[in-house]
User: What shape does this take?
Amino acid sequence: MMLFPQLHKILAVAFFLLPFCAQGKPAGLLSRFPFKPFFGGGRDEGQIPDFTPLAATANGDIIHQLEYRISRLEGVLLLNKMITEFRGKIFATNGKTADFDATVEKCREAGGSIATPRNPGENDAILYFVKYFNTYAYLGIKQSLIPGKFQLLDGTPLSYTNWYSNEPSGQGEEECVEMYTDGTWNDKKCNNNRLIVCQF
Assistant: This one.
């Protein structure tokens, strides 16, 4: 029996966001959603319901219970404005900021990669966080060996762009790409702190 296709993505997002919620509420943000960590003792009305240990029954029952709990977790994360989705690709933020290299590493550690829009829908999914937190975010795009030419981190040429007017303008000095709060892109130096947004 197979788990539903989004299982690995949801689990990766959950582990990425766990430190964000580890103290019982999202690290100073979104405090109007009080809940306790779902690992540990005690039940209380602020806790996410039904996160009790899985019953040791048949494998099919355990898989069904996991699917149910993961779908509920996905709902909670959506409600708390921590994940968005477009055509099966999940985008997540922990609300923290970091420079470009640290963002790439945090996303990799979580089992994902830095958010990289490949079409307008994915751009809008990332823009949701940029607007919500009212801050810019780095994208998984860097300058190639040719100054002023940009590509995906794996070297693939860009098939979709959303540059702000007269951008990129760094003339080789600005190697990373950030998203503005209107969804357009700007080339920028890589050492600024920007919102961490990962994709899974």
The radius of gyration is 19 Å. Residues 59-79 form the longest helix (21 residues).
